[in-house]
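Form 7-S
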Amino acid sequence: MVRIAIGAFLGTVLGSAIGIMSLASLAAFVATPVRAQNADIENLKAKISAAQTAQQSFAKGLPHCSELNGTNFYFEARDRVFDLADYHRSLNSLALQGSFNPATRKPWSQADADARWAEAQQLARKDKTDCELAASLPGLQNKLQALLQQTAASQTDPSASKK
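Output:
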């Protein structure tokens, strides 16, 4: 936006002093929206790539996305969704009982339970984000296709880029 304003100002000032400069500033002014569109295209491609990666890496959890709203998380080993509140109560119970923790090969401690609880909360946030990314993929692809068509049209028709 600043480049456009500066380019327009310089083009006006220098163009009035030197007739040749107005042509150069006009070319720079017309090329700026194309660069902005290219940046938008690259951003969309990056978002699409992230969505595709989430879709592939979270393929088993995708059928459960209706439940993964930040209060639940997907446990891949059992192909099951756990409620965070219930999971937290279970962890605290394991710590109070001093049950055997196979990960540490010692009885559960409150520190172990707290660490696992933090992991579960992080997993719930990640699962929600992955579901949102995967759900946004068709819309992102449509937006990219429309932007590519718009860019192609503006490159073939110079008057279209001034809109």
